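Model: You mentioned two targets. I'll fold them one after the other.
Researcher: Yes, keep them separate.
Model: Target one:
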Amino acid sequence: MRHALRALPMLLLLFAGAAQAEVKIAFVDLQRALLEVEEGKKAKSTLEKMKTERQAELDKKQEELRSLQKNFEAQKEFMKDDVRQAKEKEFREKLGQLQMTFAQLQKELAQEEAKLTKGIFERMARILAKMGEAEGYTMIFEKTESSILWAPRHLDLTNDLIRRYNAGEGKK
């Protein structure tokens, strides 16, 4: 019995070594892949255009608010208290509206980004599943989500993913 107990740690080490030999791991940078596949480039362009349009809208409203504030500051000394208070209230309301508009535009951009990238990421997942099965990977990690700080380049499947995606693989 005593001899068997001494052999147990050796057996555990042997099994652990065998189990580690079967583990095959890789990673992919999905954000980089998104920016480099053709559909991702189109999505980014669409989002940039939308962002530029929304920013112009915000800039216009901001300028209107600045002008209102400038006029108010120049005239407030000559205003009756009730008129000054009404103008201050109007300014606060317009500022609140501007803040709400900004929040709404941010939300719209985030929703549009999610809509445009959802299908791309789903297709990438199908490609990665196929790659994982074909190459015998135990796990494929996402570089930024798994906080990979360093790994050998040969474990990075991003270029292969981009190539396969642009070649049309993974479509339903």
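Model: Target two:
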Amino acid sequence: MENTQRSQAIKHVLSTLFSAQEALRALAPEFRWAGLGNLLGDYGEFVCIEHYGLEKAPAGANGYDAITPDGQRVQIKASHAANQIGFRGEADLMLVIKVDTEGEWEEVYYGPFSKVSEQARYSARDNKHTLTISKLKKLAEDIAS
């Protein structure tokens, strides 16, 4: 199966899962039905690696998910409904996308990891840094101009 067909098939499956998740929320709204985090993260990594021509990081890589053709380490984050991202570790670049319920996505931020790290808040309780999507969009605008 060629990459375009494979990408379209995977996007369709993810869209179906999001649709099922919405149905669960309608049927039993007292529950969050938000257990797609790992699936969303894997989808984010998949589409970013495919779209940006990255190489998947080796298993057990600490703090990054992919490598650029010139050897830079990239941490990839995908968001669906959250208004912030959380991250641990260090990388050269941060790539954040927002995924809608149809599996379509848009780039929120792709740039220096250090810029994100400088703006983030650290939570000792969770042992991770967090930064809002709105701040990431502002960072992306600042880098573009």
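Researcher: Noted. Anything on target two?
Model: Helices lie at 3-27, 37-52, 113-119, 133-144.
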